Amino acid sequence: MRYSIIIPMYNVAGYIAKTLKSFTKEAMRDTELILVDDGSVDDSASVASEYLVTAGISSFRVITKGNGGVSTARNAGLDAARGEYIIFCDADDCLGEAQQDCSCDFAGLANRLNECDEDLIAWPFYNYQDGVLSSSLSESMVRPKGVCSRNQFLRFNLLQGFKSRLGAFAVKRSLIEKYQFRFDTSCTLGEDVEFFMKVFMRADSVRVLEQPYYIYNKHMGSLAYSYNIRRFEAPLAMGRVSEYMKTHEDVAESIDADVKEYIDNGLYILHGIYAFDSCIARIGGIGPKRQLWKDYITNYLQVEKQLKMKLSAMNTAPFGISRKRLLLFGLSRRLYILMRK
């Protein structure tokens, strides 16, 4: 078996068919689909099974488990996988070559992947929101091409804006099992970045495909459109990424100093400020904003302490965050602390 595609499902009966449309009988000759139903209360599992059977696809398994969150679902998929490469796909996204109707065809991606044998194969992706499809690549970006080293890929990814998503790479299962990588089940936001950053730091060779092969659907039902104080779990996850790098000398020694600084400080700052910006954008109003700061200080004081240290340690603003944004963040944080006294 060449590929295992892991798709966690939770109450996705209404749109799982669009995701599964990516996979055809011809494209699935050496690929297995592993669908993990994480305690859905709708008929997600039966809808998915019926669709695949009707499409003539037999190389799939549906794992049904009690609700435990997306990390437990992905871990169950990893435990069951038999493929040489692992690919993840969310149940509301699409995997493969983009079609005119914003669906995908996995066959085009499978053909490209069959030419590769690196530890990690990565590709750009599309964002789809409000009827608009946009690439994760910018016109001015220095784009990685072909095969690159671990350090080169991390540099592209962290310092030069080549964004990654969980569905935008294939990784050898032997690499995952060698280092016993699994998703942190205590974390509900940021667990995906924690997982793939650790994988990236262990991949000796990386091939980067030029064409986007994933459509990330942003919709009003997603976590991005709600106030959720647990967003601050994401910087904590980045702290674990930093700790992993620092406690494994063979990893740290293979990475340039500025890349290490970004992993140690920049990722934490980036995800911490993103958590604030996202919460503020969803909560609205001066009173509720004050509640946000109260929730933050009460529940995530460890984030507050780490951010203060990392803001002092980071010599330059992390990619995607302006220096002005850092200064404004620091000012608003200090003002709230003064108001509490």
Describe the structure in your own words:
The structure is a single chain. The chain is an alpha/beta fold and 341 residues long. It has two domains: 3-223, Spore Coat Polysaccharide Biosynthesis Protein SpsA, Chain A, CATH 3.90.550; 226-340. It has 13 helices and 14 strands. It has helices at residues 16-20, 44-54, 70-80, 106-113, 150-159, 173-178, 191-200, 233-247, 249-252, 257-283, 286-299, 301-313, 323-340, and strands spanning 3-9, 31-38, 60-65, 85-88, 94-95, 97-98, 104-105, 120-122, 126-129, 132-135, 146-149, 169-172, 205-208, 214-217. Strands 3-2-1-4-12-8-13-11 form an eight-stranded mixed β-sheet, sandwiched between helices. Strands 5-14-9-10 form a four-stranded mixed β-sheet. Strands 6-7 form a two-stranded antiparallel ribbon. Helix 2 links the parallel strand 2 (31-38) and strand 3. Helix 5 packs parallel to helix 10 (257-283), helix 7 (191-200) packs parallel to helix 8 (233-247) and helix 8 (233-247) packs antiparallel against helix 10. The radius of gyration is 20 Å and the shape is globular. The termini are far apart.
